Amino acid sequence: MAGLRRALAFALALCLSACGQREPQVETLHFWAVGSEAEVLSQLLPEFERTHPRVHIEVQQLAWNAAHEKLLTAIAGDATPDLCQLGNTWIPELVALQSLEPLQARVAVSTRIVRDDYFPGAWQPNLLGGALYGVPWYVDTRLLFYRSDLLQQAGFPAPPVTWSEWLAQMQAIKRLVGDDRYAVLLPLNQFEPLQVLALQQPESMLRDGDRYGNFRSASFRRALSFYHQLFQQSLAPTLTETQVSNVWNEFGRGYFAFYVSGPWNIPEFKRRLPQSLQGSWMTAPMPGPDGPGVSSAGGSSLVIFNRSRHKDSAFAVIEFLSQPAVQQRFHELTGDLPPRRSSWEGGAIGSDPYTRAFREQLEHLRAFPQLPEWEQVMQAMRTMAERVARGEQDEADATASLDEEVDAMLAKRRWLLARKAAT
Q1: What is the pTM assigned to this prediction?
Q2: Do β-strands 55-62 and 27-34 pair in parallel, antiparallel, or remain unpaired?
Q3: 107 and 240 belong to one structural domain
Q4: Which of 339, 361, 383 is the last residue of a domain?
């Protein structure tokens, strides 16, 4: 009986000891991502969770057309995720709302995020007021897609480097293809082509610390005049993209020979053009006013919200997704361009002839003015440019009106800056 009592006491002690040892708590991270990028995270993050068994990541997919409103609602309701994919043009707005965690101290000691390995134009949009608020996840830019066979038929063995060369090539192609086809497609519902031409100028599109519009400047007028003459000379059709039945088919049938677009169209042209035309198109960096031109520095970054209770783990996810091997895999799954130079060494991206021009262009990027109203400013510019292209308003009146419109948009910014300076 005594032996039985001792056995029962020992079993009870083991039970109590086991009950007192709790399993380490699993952290659940909430990660919001947008569009197709959210879809491919399910193929990348299991490796992170395997090496971080106490971290579980829940990914919520947002639609691009609803993401901005969703983020603002979450900020207002104190319901932000731990980390998020954020378009570069949205970063200033969320910084102004004091919702993002500064990351410079973490990046400074990180062994996986090497600042000098990033393209400067991809890194710059994440810096505001000397603080770093995001780490580039992928970089987006625009350059030329062109029909190399039509260019050769017009007498040019290589794509243009300067505006004057590009204009001469477009004029020659127009003579070659005739009245019912064109040299370039510049959809009037897109502001990006004119934005790139304007970014190539020495003067900014805004002045006085981004307090006022600067569209009457000689720099912007030069960009607008070049853009305008492409429509005046019937080198570009006065159409929106919705009026083109199928961009890829029209490119294939020679309706236009040049198209300013981004890396997402590489797989589209590979898939949609017939095999007989696969050797008849190529990509090239943007020509500039007097030599190789800069292009826009778009894309998305990874940010941490300052209300997150799991900032260390959230930053570990950013470090994981920033590794060159993971970025190469991400490119294979999405076609998005890696923001690190080392990520371009090897893998599919290193051997694809269509991405070579993008690799070159990424060394020549220029960031947008960093203010929340930028997208609104660009939409106003697009509307102005459409009126000019259609001959509804001359350049001088159009740029003067645009400055007035943009000045009104920036009135609150001027008030806030004046108030800050007075304190």
Answers
A1: 0.91
A2: parallel
A3: no
A4: 361
